[in-house]
Protein backbone atom coordinates (compact mmCIF):
# COMPACT_ATOMS: atom_id res chain seq x y z
CA UNK A 1 0.00 0.00 0.00
CA UNK A 2 1.18 3.51 -0.80
CA UNK A 3 2.77 5.32 2.11
CA UNK A 4 1.13 8.41 3.55
CA UNK A 5 3.53 11.35 3.81
CA UNK A 6 3.04 14.85 5.26
CA UNK A 7 5.61 17.51 4.40
CA UNK A 8 5.20 20.92 6.04
CA UNK A 9 6.33 23.98 4.08
CA UNK A 10 6.34 22.13 0.78
CA UNK A 11 5.10 24.75 -1.67
CA UNK A 12 8.70 25.85 -2.29
CA UNK A 13 12.37 24.93 -2.00
CA UNK A 14 13.51 21.93 0.02
CA UNK A 15 10.01 20.90 1.15
CA UNK A 16 8.72 20.81 -2.43
CA UNK A 17 11.78 18.75 -3.40
CA UNK A 18 11.12 16.28 -0.58
CA UNK A 19 7.41 16.05 -1.48
CA UNK A 20 8.39 15.49 -5.13
CA UNK A 21 10.78 12.66 -4.20
CA UNK A 22 8.13 10.85 -2.11
CA UNK A 23 5.45 11.43 -4.78
CA UNK A 24 7.79 9.96 -7.39
CA UNK A 25 7.97 6.81 -5.26
CA UNK A 26 4.18 6.50 -5.46
CA UNK A 27 3.41 7.86 -1.98
CA UNK A 28 0.22 9.70 -1.07
CA UNK A 29 1.45 13.13 -0.03
CA UNK A 30 -0.04 16.13 1.76
CA UNK A 31 1.77 19.30 0.77
CA UNK A 32 1.49 22.50 2.80
CA UNK A 33 2.72 26.06 2.79
CA UNK A 34 1.96 29.52 1.51
CA UNK A 35 1.98 30.96 -1.98
CA UNK A 36 -0.04 31.77 -5.05
CA UNK A 37 -3.09 29.47 -5.31
CA UNK A 38 -2.65 28.71 -9.01
CA UNK A 39 1.05 27.92 -8.61
CA UNK A 40 0.33 25.64 -5.65
CA UNK A 41 -2.35 23.80 -7.64
CA UNK A 42 0.05 23.43 -10.58
CA UNK A 43 2.72 21.98 -8.25
CA UNK A 44 0.19 19.63 -6.65
CA UNK A 45 -1.01 18.37 -10.03
CA UNK A 46 2.58 17.94 -11.27
CA UNK A 47 3.51 15.88 -8.19
CA UNK A 48 0.42 13.71 -8.55
CA UNK A 49 1.45 12.70 -12.07
CA UNK A 50 4.86 11.45 -10.92
CA UNK A 51 4.10 8.20 -9.13
CA UNK A 52 0.38 7.54 -9.18
CA UNK A 53 -0.30 8.43 -5.54
CA UNK A 54 -2.75 11.10 -4.44
CA UNK A 55 -1.33 14.53 -3.62
CA UNK A 56 -3.40 16.94 -1.49
CA UNK A 57 -2.73 20.50 -0.45
CA UNK A 58 -3.51 21.79 3.06
CA UNK A 59 -3.03 25.46 3.93
CA UNK A 60 -2.24 25.09 7.68
CA UNK A 61 -0.28 27.99 9.11
CA UNK A 62 2.55 26.51 11.19
CA UNK A 63 2.09 29.23 13.83
CA UNK A 64 -1.47 27.93 14.53
CA UNK A 65 -1.77 24.71 16.56
CA UNK A 66 -5.43 24.13 15.60
CA UNK A 67 -4.61 24.36 11.88
CA UNK A 68 -1.66 21.97 12.38
CA UNK A 69 -4.04 19.50 14.06
CA UNK A 70 -6.38 19.82 11.07
CA UNK A 71 -3.47 19.13 8.69
CA UNK A 72 -2.69 15.82 10.40
CA UNK A 73 -6.41 14.91 10.69
CA UNK A 74 -6.80 15.56 6.95
CA UNK A 75 -3.91 13.20 6.18
CA UNK A 76 -5.40 10.55 8.46
CA UNK A 77 -8.91 10.89 7.02
CA UNK A 78 -7.65 10.89 3.43
CA UNK A 79 -4.95 8.21 3.61
CA UNK A 80 -5.75 6.26 6.79
CA UNK A 81 -2.64 7.24 8.75
CA UNK A 82 0.64 9.15 8.54
CA UNK A 83 3.64 6.93 7.79
CA UNK A 84 6.20 9.68 7.25
CA UNK A 85 6.13 13.15 8.79
CA UNK A 86 8.60 15.71 7.48
CA UNK A 87 8.85 18.93 9.51
CA UNK A 88 10.32 21.38 7.07
CA UNK A 89 8.47 24.73 7.09
CA UNK A 90 10.75 27.64 7.77
CA UNK A 91 11.48 31.32 7.50
CA UNK A 92 14.53 33.38 8.35
CA UNK A 93 15.13 36.81 9.82
CA UNK A 94 18.56 38.39 10.02
CA UNK A 95 19.15 41.16 12.61
CA UNK A 96 21.24 42.05 15.64
CA UNK A 97 19.73 40.70 18.89
CA UNK A 98 19.11 44.16 20.34
CA UNK A 99 17.26 45.13 17.14
CA UNK A 100 15.53 41.78 16.56
CA UNK A 101 11.76 42.46 16.28
CA UNK A 102 10.03 40.62 19.14
CA UNK A 103 7.20 39.41 16.88
CA UNK A 104 9.79 37.98 14.44
CA UNK A 105 11.46 36.08 17.29
CA UNK A 106 8.09 34.59 18.28
CA UNK A 107 7.23 33.77 14.64
CA UNK A 108 10.53 31.99 13.96
CA UNK A 109 10.34 29.93 17.14
CA UNK A 110 6.72 29.01 16.33
CA UNK A 111 7.35 27.98 12.71
CA UNK A 112 10.77 26.36 13.10
CA UNK A 113 10.42 24.67 16.50
CA UNK A 114 6.95 24.64 18.06
CA UNK A 115 5.25 23.50 14.83
CA UNK A 116 7.32 20.29 14.93
CA UNK A 117 6.05 19.64 18.46
CA UNK A 118 2.46 20.18 17.29
CA UNK A 119 2.73 17.97 14.19
CA UNK A 120 4.42 15.29 16.26
CA UNK A 121 1.93 15.29 19.14
CA UNK A 122 -0.88 14.81 16.62
CA UNK A 123 0.93 12.19 14.52
CA UNK A 124 2.56 10.00 17.17
CA UNK A 125 -0.71 8.29 18.26
CA UNK A 126 -1.32 7.27 14.62
CA UNK A 127 2.21 5.93 14.25
CA UNK A 128 2.02 4.06 17.57
CA UNK A 129 -1.24 2.46 16.44
CA UNK A 130 0.41 1.39 13.18
CA UNK A 131 3.53 0.16 15.01
CA UNK A 132 5.76 2.09 12.61
CA UNK A 133 6.62 5.56 11.48
CA UNK A 134 9.34 7.94 10.36
CA UNK A 135 9.72 11.51 11.58
CA UNK A 136 12.25 13.63 9.72
CA UNK A 137 13.01 17.13 10.92
CA UNK A 138 14.72 19.46 8.47
CA UNK A 139 17.05 21.28 10.86
CA UNK A 140 20.21 22.98 9.56
CA UNK A 141 23.95 23.29 10.01
CA UNK A 142 22.69 26.10 12.24
CA UNK A 143 21.31 23.39 14.53
CA UNK A 144 24.93 22.49 15.28
CA UNK A 145 26.88 25.73 14.95
CA UNK A 146 25.97 29.42 15.04
CA UNK A 147 26.31 32.51 12.88
CA UNK A 148 25.84 36.08 14.09
CA UNK A 149 22.55 37.94 13.43
CA UNK A 150 20.52 34.71 13.26
CA UNK A 151 19.72 34.27 16.96
CA UNK A 152 16.12 33.06 16.59
CA UNK A 153 16.94 30.68 13.72
CA UNK A 154 20.00 29.21 15.46
CA UNK A 155 18.13 28.84 18.76
CA UNK A 156 15.16 27.16 17.07
CA UNK A 157 17.30 24.78 15.01
CA UNK A 158 19.35 23.76 18.07
CA UNK A 159 15.97 23.15 19.72
CA UNK A 160 14.85 20.96 16.84
CA UNK A 161 17.86 18.70 17.38
CA UNK A 162 16.97 18.41 21.08
CA UNK A 163 13.36 17.60 20.24
CA UNK A 164 14.57 15.03 17.71
CA UNK A 165 16.68 13.21 20.32
CA UNK A 166 14.02 13.30 23.02
CA UNK A 167 11.30 12.03 20.67
CA UNK A 168 13.60 9.29 19.34
CA UNK A 169 14.10 7.93 22.86
CA UNK A 170 10.38 8.03 23.62
CA UNK A 171 9.46 6.26 20.39
CA UNK A 172 12.33 3.84 19.87
CA UNK A 173 10.39 0.80 21.03
CA UNK A 174 7.35 1.59 18.89
CA UNK A 175 9.04 1.11 15.51
CA UNK A 176 9.21 4.86 15.00
CA UNK A 177 12.45 6.64 14.15
CA UNK A 178 13.07 10.35 14.57
CA UNK A 179 15.99 12.05 12.85
CA UNK A 180 17.10 15.42 11.58
CA UNK A 181 18.74 16.52 8.37
CA UNK A 182 21.21 19.39 8.71
CA UNK A 183 21.80 21.03 5.34
CA UNK A 184 24.34 23.75 4.73
CA UNK A 185 23.36 26.50 2.29
CA UNK A 186 20.87 25.47 -0.39
CA UNK A 187 19.93 28.12 -2.97
CA UNK A 188 16.19 28.35 -2.31
CA UNK A 189 13.90 31.40 -1.99
CA UNK A 190 14.63 31.43 1.78
CA UNK A 191 18.35 31.90 1.15
CA UNK A 192 17.94 34.26 -1.82
CA UNK A 193 15.83 36.55 0.40
CA UNK A 194 18.44 36.83 3.16
CA UNK A 195 21.29 37.84 0.84
CA UNK A 196 20.34 41.57 0.73
CA UNK A 197 19.72 41.66 4.51
CA UNK A 198 23.05 40.00 5.28
CA UNK A 199 24.81 42.38 2.87
CA UNK A 200 23.26 45.30 4.76
CA UNK A 201 24.14 43.96 8.25
CA UNK A 202 27.74 43.24 7.27
CA UNK A 203 28.23 46.20 4.93
CA UNK A 204 29.38 44.02 2.01
CA UNK A 205 28.13 43.29 -1.53
CA UNK A 206 25.52 40.62 -2.26
CA UNK A 207 28.06 38.59 -4.26
CA UNK A 208 30.42 38.71 -1.25
CA UNK A 209 27.61 37.34 0.94
CA UNK A 210 27.50 34.23 -1.29
CA UNK A 211 31.25 33.63 -1.54
CA UNK A 212 32.61 35.08 1.73
CA UNK A 213 29.75 34.34 4.14
CA UNK A 214 27.63 31.45 2.86
CA UNK A 215 30.25 29.36 1.09
CA UNK A 216 33.19 30.45 3.26
CA UNK A 217 32.79 27.47 5.59
CA UNK A 218 31.36 25.05 3.02
CA UNK A 219 34.63 23.32 2.20
CA UNK A 220 33.34 22.13 -1.18
CA UNK A 221 32.62 25.79 -2.10
CA UNK A 222 29.34 24.64 -3.57
CA UNK A 223 25.73 25.10 -2.55
CA UNK A 224 23.90 21.93 -1.50
CA UNK A 225 21.18 20.88 -3.98
CA UNK A 226 17.53 20.41 -3.08
CA UNK A 227 17.62 16.89 -4.50
CA UNK A 228 20.53 15.90 -2.26
CA UNK A 229 18.42 16.83 0.77
CA UNK A 230 15.34 15.11 -0.67
CA UNK A 231 17.21 11.85 -1.31
CA UNK A 232 18.50 11.88 2.28
CA UNK A 233 14.90 12.09 3.47
CA UNK A 234 14.02 9.14 1.23
CA UNK A 235 16.90 7.18 2.76
CA UNK A 236 15.86 8.01 6.34
CA UNK A 237 12.36 6.77 5.49
CA UNK A 238 13.67 3.52 4.00
CA UNK A 239 13.97 0.09 5.67
CA UNK A 240 17.76 0.38 5.53
CA UNK A 241 17.57 3.27 8.03
CA UNK A 242 15.49 1.44 10.64
CA UNK A 243 18.29 1.50 13.26
CA UNK A 244 19.11 5.14 12.66
CA UNK A 245 17.29 7.21 15.26
CA UNK A 246 17.88 10.23 17.49
CA UNK A 247 20.60 11.64 15.31
CA UNK A 248 21.20 13.92 12.36
CA UNK A 249 22.74 13.66 8.92
CA UNK A 250 24.75 16.69 7.86
CA UNK A 251 24.73 17.67 4.19
CA UNK A 252 26.86 20.77 4.44
CA UNK A 253 29.87 20.36 2.14
CA UNK A 254 32.14 19.97 5.17
CA UNK A 255 31.02 23.15 7.00
CA UNK A 256 30.61 21.57 10.44
CA UNK A 257 33.81 19.53 10.15
CA UNK A 258 35.71 22.74 10.93
P1 LIG B 1 11.60 28.20 1.23
O1 LIG B 1 11.36 29.62 1.60
O2 LIG B 1 11.90 27.87 -0.19
O3 LIG B 1 10.39 27.29 1.71
C1 LIG B 1 9.81 27.45 2.97
C2 LIG B 1 8.45 26.79 2.96
O4 LIG B 1 7.86 27.00 4.27
C3 LIG B 1 7.47 27.40 1.94
O5 LIG B 1 6.68 26.38 1.41
C4 LIG B 1 6.66 28.35 2.79
O6 LIG B 1 5.37 28.64 2.25
C5 LIG B 1 6.56 27.54 4.07
N1 LIG B 1 6.15 28.33 5.22
C6 LIG B 1 6.69 29.48 5.69
N2 LIG B 1 5.99 29.92 6.75
C7 LIG B 1 4.99 29.03 6.94
C8 LIG B 1 3.93 28.93 7.88
N3 LIG B 1 3.73 29.84 8.84
N4 LIG B 1 3.09 27.87 7.78
C9 LIG B 1 3.26 26.94 6.80
N5 LIG B 1 4.24 26.98 5.89
C10 LIG B 1 5.10 28.01 5.97
O7 LIG B 1 12.79 27.74 2.19
P2 LIG B 1 13.78 26.46 2.17
O8 LIG B 1 15.15 26.98 2.03
O9 LIG B 1 13.30 25.41 1.26
O10 LIG B 1 13.64 25.99 3.68
C11 LIG B 1 12.99 24.80 4.08
C12 LIG B 1 13.57 24.32 5.38
O11 LIG B 1 14.95 24.02 5.20
C13 LIG B 1 13.51 25.36 6.51
O12 LIG B 1 13.20 24.74 7.74
C14 LIG B 1 14.92 25.90 6.55
O13 LIG B 1 15.25 26.41 7.80
C15 LIG B 1 15.70 24.64 6.21
N6 LIG B 1 17.05 24.88 5.72
C16 LIG B 1 17.27 25.62 4.59
C17 LIG B 1 18.58 25.83 4.17
C18 LIG B 1 18.88 26.61 2.94
O14 LIG B 1 20.07 26.96 2.74
N7 LIG B 1 17.92 26.92 2.08
C19 LIG B 1 19.64 25.31 4.90
C20 LIG B 1 19.38 24.57 6.04
C21 LIG B 1 18.08 24.36 6.45
TrEMBL record:
GO MF, any single term: 3-hydroxybutyrate dehydrogenase activity
Domain of life according to the entry: Bacteria
Keyword Lyase: no
Keyword set, alphabetical order: Oxidoreductase
Similarity-based family: Belongs to the short-chain dehydrogenases/reductases (SDR) family.
Documented EC number(s): 1.1.1.30
Source lineage: Bacteria, Pseudomonadati, Pseudomonadota, Alphaproteobacteria, Hyphomicrobiales
Gene3D superfamilies (alphabetical): NAD(P)-binding Rossmann-like Domain
Protein name in UniProt: 3-hydroxybutyrate dehydrogenase
PANTHER family noted in UniProt: 3-OXOACYL-(ACYL-CARRIER-PROTEIN) REDUCTASE (PTHR42879), 3-OXOACYL-[ACYL-CARRIER-PROTEIN] REDUCTASE FABG (PTHR42879:SF2)
Oxidoreductase in keyword set: yes
PROSITE patterns membership: ADH_SHORT (PS00061)
Naturally occurring in which organism (per UniProt): Rhizobium helianthi
Amino acid sequence: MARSVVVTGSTSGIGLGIARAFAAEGANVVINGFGNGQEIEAARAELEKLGGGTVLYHSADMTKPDEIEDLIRTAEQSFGTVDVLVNNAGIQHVAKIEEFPVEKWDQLIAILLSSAFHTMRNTIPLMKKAGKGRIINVASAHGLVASPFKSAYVAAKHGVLGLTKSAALELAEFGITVNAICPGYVLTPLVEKQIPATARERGISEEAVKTDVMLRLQATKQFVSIDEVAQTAIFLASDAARQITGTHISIDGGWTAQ
